[in-house]
């Protein structure tokens, strides 16, 4: 069953067309990795899915609700579709627990007691129960990103979008974050992950999508795309990662 269905998605900035008809589907419980060169529209595609960008044309349906409908409720969309950013986007003046609790309080209208209980469980799930009272500056980049993941998880979304979640991290911290994502996958979370971590995509993804020039050039199982790419553009992109 499709949890996220993107059809004919187009996005232009002025006269520059950045997405030129993207079709992509993520089924329940799948981990789909999106790879492709810088500037190919990967971030724009993710940002269109939770309306951080307004699509120019096309349809996005998440969990049966049309995100691109003119009457859509943005708050519902953002509770249904979690997002994890490259730069974490945590509030520096709030503790880990407060960062994770915020949307539970302000958007979902939970009581403080309920919000903190849910937030604490999410922090424990990413291995940060003991860091709940720490501020972002007191945490490593990998820990900050795990707070970012806990914040997404706490809202119990149907799908989580990750935009290069490990690109801002020192190499020794990358694996901790990838392990949290592997664990989420095991728990059945549906995930769409833009990444340059090719070993992770190869080993962990149910499907791999290669984007270039604002379109999906090729997609298949991880084995198909990495071991037997069909398109010349995919082959030359992968050759650079040797
Ligand atoms: P990727 O994530 O694959 O590197 P992006 O989606 O960030 O690609 O960007 C795709 C193209 O869209 C790039 O050429 C980028 O310069 C352009 N772009 C992205 N955001 C904007 C914006 N807000 N205004 C104008 N151009 C943008
Ligand atoms: Mg990007």
Describe it.
This protein is an alpha/beta fold. Helices cover 38% and strands 26% of the residues. A hairpin with a 2-residue loop joins strand 4 (57-62) and strand 5. The protein is globular, with a radius of gyration of 18 Å. Magnesium ion (MG) binds next to helix 1.
General form: globular
Associated small molecules: adenosine-5'-diphosphate, magnesium ion
Total beta strands:
10
Low-confidence stretches: none
Brief synopsis:
Helix content is 38%, strand content 26%.
Write the layout of secondary structure elements.
Elements: E1 2-13, E2 16-27, E3 31-35, H1 42-49, E4 57-62, E5 65-66, H2 74-80, E6 81-84, H3 96-106, H4 112-125, H5 141-154, E7 159-163, H6 171-186, E8 191-194, H7 198-204, E9 207-212, E10 215-220, H8 222-227, H9 232-239
Parallel strand pairs: 3-8, 3-9, 6-7, 7-8
Antiparallel strand pairs: 1-2, 1-4, 4-5, 9-10
Helix pairs in contact: 3-4, 3-5, 4-5, 5-6
Q: Main traits of this protein?
A:
242 residues; alpha/beta; six-stranded mixed beta sheet; four-stranded antiparallel beta sheet; 9 helices; 10 strands; binds adenosine-5'-diphosphate; binds magnesium ion; ATP binding; Amino acid ABC transporter ATP-binding protein; P-loop_NTPase
């Amino acid at each position: 069953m499709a949890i996220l269905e993107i059809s004919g998605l187009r996005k232009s900035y002025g006269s520059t067309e950045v997405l030129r008809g993207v079709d992509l589907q993520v089924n329940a419980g799948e981990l789909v990795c999106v790879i492709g060169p810088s500037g190919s529209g990967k971030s724009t595609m993710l940002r269109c899915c939770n309306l951080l960008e307004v699509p120019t044309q096309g349809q996005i349906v998440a969990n049966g609700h049309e995100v691109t409908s003119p009457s859509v409720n943005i708050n519902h969309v953002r509770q249904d579709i979690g997002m994890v950013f490259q730069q974490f986007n945590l509030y520096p003046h709030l503790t880990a627990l407060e960062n994770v609790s915020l949307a539970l309080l302000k958007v979902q209208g939970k009581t403080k007691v309920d919000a903190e209980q849910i937030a604490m469980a999410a922090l424990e799930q990413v291995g940060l129960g003991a860091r709940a009272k720490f501020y972002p500056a007191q945490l490593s980049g990998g820990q900050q990103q795990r707070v970012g993941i806990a914040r997404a998880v706490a809202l119990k979304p149907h799908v989580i979008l990750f935009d290069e979640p490990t690109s801002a991290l020192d190499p020794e911290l990358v694996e901790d974050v990838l392990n949290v994502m592997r664990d989420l996958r095991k728990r059945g979370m549906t995930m769409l992950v833009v990444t340059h971590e090719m070993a992770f995509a190869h080993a962990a993804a149910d499907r791999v999508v290669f984007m270039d020039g604002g379109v999906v050039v090729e997609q298949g199982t991880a084995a198909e795309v990495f071991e037997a790419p069909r398109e010349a553009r995919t082959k030359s992109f992968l050759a650079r990662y040797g």
